[in-house]
Design goal:
- By secondary structure, this protein is α+β, with helices and mostly antiparallel strands.
- The chain has two helices and four strands, in the order H-H-E-E-E-E.
- It has one domain: YaeB-like fold (2-Layer Sandwich).
- The protein has a four-stranded antiparallel sheet with strand order 1-2-3-4.
Amino acid sequence: MSQLPPWRVAWTPAALDDLVDLADPLVARIRRAVQRYAETRHGDVKKLKGENQRWRLRVSDWRVLFCFAPETHPDPHRVARNQPT
């Protein structure tokens, strides 16, 4: 079985802004989870219902919302804490 090439991750300015006020260990954990998904296609990822080509990656209580660029790489566009319903 051949290994898939890693996707290039391009963080949007909004996603980077979301990370600014978070603690450094949490930012590192989120970045590692995104990079792991880009490299291995493994992670707690689901397509969002009712959204055109939008997905979310769960990292503990946090969600990284992303879409795939035309070159089929994930572009994280927001990072948000999961709100209990």
